[in-house]
Amino acid sequence: MRIVGKIIKWFAALVVLAVAALAGWLYFAPPALIRVGSGYAAKIVCSNVFVAGRDAGQVLADDVQAPGHPLLRLMSVSVDKEAGTVRAGLFGVFGRGLAVAHEGAGCTTVPDGDLAAARLGAVPAAPAANKDALWPEGDKVEPSQAPGINAILDDAALAGPGVRAVVVVQNGRIVGERYAEGFSAETPLLGWSMTKTVTAAIIGTLVGDGRMAVDKTGLRDAWKGDGRAAISLADLMAMSSGLEFNEDYGDVTDVTRMLYLEPDMAGFAGGKPLAGEVGKVFSYSSGTTVLLSRLWQDAVADPAKALAWPRERLFGPLGMSSAILEVDARGTFAGSSYMYATAHDWARFGQFLLQDGVWNGTRILPEGYVRWMREKAPAATHGEYGRGQLWLQGPEGGTPVGQNPDTGFDLPADTFWMQGHDGQTVAIAPSANLVVVRLGLTPSKLHYKPQAMLAALIGAMR
C-alpha cells in the first residue's frame, strides 16, 4: 500500500508540474490563436464601451462570445475607465489582450503592450448636428406613414436575425427606421468593411486637392526595387495589387494577424510579396485598404493634420458628427475595418454617394470620382466589385460578391453596396433615389440576404 501511495503522490506531483508548465507556457508564450482572441475581445469591448457607451459585460456576451469562435467563450475582460484601457485574456489571464481609448478617435489594439507608443493626442470632434432640423441637416425624422414601408420594417425575416438598426432614405429624407432593444438613433455602430468605401472617399478628397493620383505607381520606397513598384493606387483600390494576403477570418491568417497581432498594420501588409500579376488578379484584401490609409495619411504629410483630415474634409461637411475612424498602434487609420457611426450618419454617407459626392450644393469629391468608384474592377472576374472599394449589383439581380450567390431579386441595375462583416450593408439605388442602411450582428452562416428587404421596399414605393 505504501508503494501505491508513493505512486499516487508522484503522479499527482507530475500532474501539478504539467499544469504549472502549461500555465507558464500559456502565460509567457501564448499561441497566436489565443492572442488573436484576446486582442479581438479587448478591442471590441473597448470600442463599444468608450465609443458606443454600452455595458462591457453585455458586449462581451453578445458581440464577442455568442457569435464567435468557441475559444472566445472563455475570454474575460477588465475595463479601467479612468485609464481608458481594456484588458482581455483566456480565463482573464492568458493572451494579454490590450486596447486603449483615445479622445475622439475610438480604440486601438495594442498587441506589443506599448501604451505610450499607441496613445494619440485628442482628435477634434466634428460639429454636432442640429437635432431640431430635419435629417440630413439635423436628426429630426418625420417617417412616412405608408403602411407598406412600416410592414416591411416590422417583418423580422426581411430585417434579418441580429438586426440592430435599419434606416430607409427616399428622395433625401428618412422615411422609416427601426432599432433593436438597447440600440437607438444615437448608438454608434461598427461598419466593419463598409469602412473601406469611406477610405476610398477620403482618398477622393486628396485626389481633388491634387495630392494623390489614381495612376501613381512607386507607392512605397520598399517596393521600388522589385515588381511591387508597378502597383498603382488604382490597383490597390480595385483589390488587384497582386500582393499576397489571406482574408480568411477562421483562425490565425493574414487579416486576423494584421488586425490583432501587428502594431504597425500597414508595415505588415506592405511587407507582403507579390503572389499574382499586378492589375490582373482580383484578391479581396483588408491589407491593401490599410495600405491606402497609410498612403493618404502620408500625402497629407503632417501627422496631426492627417488625423483631423476625415472630420475636416468629409465627416464635418456631411454632418456626420458621430463618425469615428480608429487607428492602429502606430497611428495609421484601420481604414479597412474600423469605423463607428450612427445609422443616421451611415445613411448620410450613402446619400452623399448617391448625390455623386456633392453635399448641400458643394462638390466634395471630384467630378466623376464616384462614377469611377462604381466602374467594375477590371480584374474582378468572380462577381462584381467596383474600382472604388464597393460592391456592384450582380447580374440578374443577384447578390454582390462576398455573400452567397443568389438570383431573382427585382433590383435596379445601378444599385451598389457598401458591405461589412456580420451583416452590415448600405444599399444605394440612384434610379430609385433610395438608400437603405442595415446594421446588426448577423454571421454569414445564417445566410441572410439584405437584397430581399431592398426589393420589398422598392416594390412598396413604386
Core attributes:
four-stranded antiparallel beta sheet; 15 helices; six-stranded antiparallel beta sheet; 462 residues; alpha+beta; Beta-lactamase
How would you describe the overall organization of this protein?
A hairpin with a 4-residue loop joins strand 16 (424-429) and strand 17 (434-440). This protein starts with a helix and ends with a helix. The protein is built from 15 helices and 17 strands. 49% of the residues are buried. Helix 2 (32-50) packs across helix 3 (56-65), helix 2 (32-50) packs across helix 9 and helix 7 runs parallel beside helix 11 (286-300). Helix content is 35%, strand content 17%. With 462 residues, the chain is of the alpha+beta class. The chain has helices spanning 2-28, 32-50, 56-65, 115-118, 147-153, 156-159, 195-208, 233-237, 254-261, 265-270, 286-300, 303-318, 343-354, 369-373, 450-461, and strands spanning 75-80, 85-90, 94-102, 106-109, 130-134, 138-140, 163-170, 173-179, 189-190, 324-325, 339-341, 358-359, 362-363, 391-392, 416-420, 424-429, 434-440. Among the domains are: 32-113, no CATH class; 189-215 and 286-292 and 304-461, 3-Layer(aba) Sandwich (Beta-lactamase). The strands form five sheets. It has a six-stranded antiparallel sheet with strand order 8-7-17-16-15-14, with helices on both faces. A four-stranded antiparallel sheet has the order 1-2-3-4. Strands 9-11-10 form a three-stranded antiparallel sheet.
